[in-house]
Amino acid sequence: MTTQDTTTDTRPLARLTGVSRRFGDVVALDDVSLDIAPGSIVGLLGPNGAGKTTLLSLLEGRRRATSGRVEIFGLAPDDPRARQRLGCTPQETGLPDTLRVSEVLDFVAAHFDDAADRGTIAAEFGLEPLMRKQTGALSGGQKRRLAVALAFIGNPRLVLLDEPTTGLDVDARHTLWSALRRQHERGATIVVTSHYLEEIEALAERVVVMGNGRVLADDDLAGVLGRVGLRRVTLDRVDPERVRSLDGVVRVDDVDPAAAASGVTVWVRDSDAFVRSLVVSGAPFEGLAVRRATLEEAFLTLTSDADASPAITSHERMSA
Ligand SMILES: Nc1ncnc2c1ncn2[C@@H]1O[C@H](COP(=O)(O)OP(=O)(O)OP(=O)(O)O)[C@@H](O)[C@H]1O
Fold it and tell me: With contact defined as beta carbons under 8 Å apart, do 162 and 95 qualify?
């Protein structure tokens, strides 16, 4: 460990300053500035193509920014000293089919000066019963667990996880979340991308929402949930115009006016308050149903908000 690695060091572990990345005509990242403070779990949330993987690949030193500056531990991302203290799990990981789980852990650990104890990592990620199995014989979920465990084997200060639980069932996802929380309690700083709001809620303290290569929101979990935690209310046989003016309505998705009887979708922040004001209004309706908006649905609203107003950056203000 270097003298820089003290628990009192509050300098950002990673910093992007005015970073853009193009692929031909595609602007994958558009003037992104971001600091990752030590000790945090940062959720990077956004729909397909938002730029999350590109951002991680710049931090990992796998790609270079077209413009702007990327630093990791105060170093260039492709500096071997930076790589020593960084753990990553890409979206897809190839594991050597014929190596046993224990051998893969040892092999990766051998690349680091200050590797974690193999037994501890195996226990935390539920790999102990699998240690003698060849990775080719693991289930998809077991492989994923191993891939994420490998990100921690080098005792990293910063871990970048790209959609760590995609494709896992609910139990496997919860097991992995617990393991990640334990690693965080031990001092790891984690940046995790996800499409799942539940995952970000379970793990992240700070949430950066991305869309079209830009940072749309950067706030604590509660702040972002307030923006994206919409409820979707569907109603039959209701007049959309009467609904539109009710309390807390963010958006009404009109149906064909001739088919007003067949259903209207209303996006609200507080469904209880909306239902109360609907009843008080006396507007007739039938078949009311409420569910949480999916993240993709919430992003659509956030993206249209962003066109009208600058991104929220209260995290930056708080940490300034
Ligand atoms: N190697 C590449 N060549 C060309 N375009 C690319 C390349 N990598 C990414 N892009 C484009 O850059 C944009 C951002 O992609 P990126 O993979 O960073 O998004 P993402 O938020 O990680 O999406 P997902 O959630 O689907 O993984 C997309 O428009 C994508 O098509």
Answer: no
